[in-house]
Amino acid sequence: MPQQRPILQVGHPILRQTAEAIADLPDVSIDQLVADLIHTLTASHGVGIAAPQVAASVRLVIVASRPNSRYPNAPMMAPVAMINPQIMAYSDQQEWGWEGCLSVPGLRGFVPRYQQIEVQYLTPKGEQKQEILTGFVARIFQHEWDHLNGLLFLDRVKAAHHLITEEAFQAQMNQLVGAAAKVLA
Q: Looking at 95, 99, 144, 166, which residue is catalytic?
């Protein structure tokens, strides 16, 4: 049965370690970790999570874009467990976007990410997959992949004014929605 695991917070040393590759698949303990990560992610209203965030320093991420209170415009997709993921290619174009993190509560950062990436990973059954991710889903993957390498979105922020509290971010988004509604009315 899946369990919600505590999410490590910024400052915990595991978040700054390079995670270890997973050697043998399939593995019942990895299947349990995948189930726990998906459960934890859903309960936390996130769109992605990496194993180091729950104190498991292994190369496993879950990408699970879906609209929720933190990301109301996120595209819908089923959760995908990616083991030992690699980025094979990047697009030339980057785009800036606001990111939050379950391990850095209360803050958002304006971060550049590649618009399109080609990734390779193993499924929990040990099958190799390769696919192209674009837009918001590519952003999620890059954010989670950073966790596997001991990085946080804070390391990608280029200037102090590119950080904002979650409360201020939501207030600004609500103002934009209100202004757009007035224009369309």
A: 144
Q: Domain for residue 167, yes or no?
A: yes
In this structure, are residues 41 and 79 in contact, taking their beta carbons and an 8 Å threshold?
A: yes
Q: Is residue 95 part of a domain?
A: yes
| pTM (2 d.p.) | 0.92
- For residue 88, give the CATH number of its domain: 3.90.45.10
* Burial zone of 131 (CB within 10 Å; 0-12 exposed, 13-18 middle, 19+ buried): middle
131 noted as active-site residue: no
Question: How many distinct structural domains can be found in the chain?
Answer: 1
> How many CB atoms are closer than 10 A to CB 82?
26
Q: What is the pLDDT of residues 145-178, one digit of tens each?
A: 999 999 999 999 999 999 999 999 888 877 776 6
111: domain range? 13-180
